Every structure is written in C-alpha cells, then in structure tokens.
Amino acid sequence: MLEVLPPERECVIARELTKLHETIVRGPLSNICEQVNNDPNMRKGEFVVIVAGAEAVDEESEQSQQDDEALLAILLSECSVKTAASLAAKITGHRKKIFIS
Predict the structure, then answer these.
(1) Hey, what long-range contacts does 32-40 have (CB within 8 A, 24 or more apart)?
(2) C-alpha span between 101 and 98 (Å, rounded)
(3) Whole-angstrom Cα distance, residue 23 to residue 35?
(4) pTM score, two decimals?
(5) What is the rounded distance in angstroms from the CA atom of residue 42 to the CA atom of residue 87?
(6) Distance CA 64, CA 73 (A)
(7) What is the DSSP letter of 47?
(8) How far is CA 13 from the centre of its chain?
(9) For residue 13, what are the β-bridge partners?
C-alpha cells in the first residue's frame, strides 16, 4: 500500500478482533507500516485493514479558473457585462452569478 498511496493516508489495522490478543492500531500509513515491521506479532493472525479514501478534488481547479477568466475577458471585449456573463455561463456550464462578481 505504501508504494501506491501517500504515506500520510490514514489507516487502521484491527488484528484478532473479539479475541484475547485483539489489537487496533490507527494512524498514518507510514507509521502503521513501521509498527507492523517492528512487531512480529502484528504479522500474525486475522486482520481487517481500513484505509481512508482520497481527499475530494476541488471541482474548480486553478487551470479551469484561468480558462474561465480568459473566456470572460474575450467576451467582455465584445459584449456588455450582462451578455458576457450569460454567454460564459452557457459555454462553461457554471452559474452566471460567478462571472458577475
């Protein structure tokens, strides 16, 4: 997992659940891997491994915002603010309000 996921990704390892030697370890993936490597008992038994999902990506990336601004600048050179905002909203699918403010 450490080869494909960021080392700071949250992870939980639950070992031997409902048994005498039940162990639950939580933390960043890099720390969990270190604990498992340093403790031979952490490599024995039945495991449940839970890894946090990826962070949501911001819909409005910086490049997209720059593209929107460039489009609006072109439209403003040819149209009124109201018309330019309306056209930009139709082209990009964004709400007209973001182009006016």
Answers:
(1) 33/1, 33/2
(2) 6
(3) 12
(4) 0.53
(5) 60
(6) 14
(7) E
(8) 22
(9) 25, 49
Query: Could you give the 3-state DSSP secondary structure of residue 49?
Result: strand
CA distance from start to end of the chain: 44
Q: Tens digits of per-residue pLDDT, 48-98?
A: 999 999 877 665 577 788 888 899 899 999 999 989 989 998 998 888 887
Helices (H) and strands (E) in the chain, counts: 4, 3
Distance CA 51, CA 6 (A): 11
pLDDT of res. 100: 77
Give the three-class secondary structure for 29. helix
Sheet holding 47-51, edge to edge: 23-28, 10-15, 47-51
What residue spans define the domains of the chain? Answer: 10-51, 62-100
Q: What is the 3-state secondary structure (H, E, C) of 5-26?
A: CCCCCEEEEEECCCCCCCEEEE
d(CA 59, CA 37): 38
